[in-house]
Amino acid sequence: MRKTNLFKGSIxxxxxxxxxxxxxxxxxxxxxxxxxxxxGDLKITEGALYPxxxxxxxxxxxxxxxxxxxxxxxKYYKLTEKGQKETVSKLAELEKYLETMxxxxxxxxx
Length: 110
Hints:
By secondary structure, the chain is an alpha+beta fold. It is about 60% helix and about 15% strand. This is PadR family transcriptional regulator.
């Protein structure tokens, strides 16, 4: 699938949902999970991922935990309590958007 602005505009919601479902994740793991779940239709590049994660961190929606793994430092991202609430809000907003788009694409005229 071609890269679109729809995905770009949804990256924060995608990240929040992934972290809600997986407790904590590191960057490469996130990119691979997105690719796996979408069967390759969506690929998040490092150039899009890390700025988005840093923004979520700056907003207090995710915490970063650094662990040493195989002699290297690895950053794990985890939702904060504020991030959990924001995830619920973002998912509700996205669901409403999808319903509206479905209505526009398949209008039912009386």
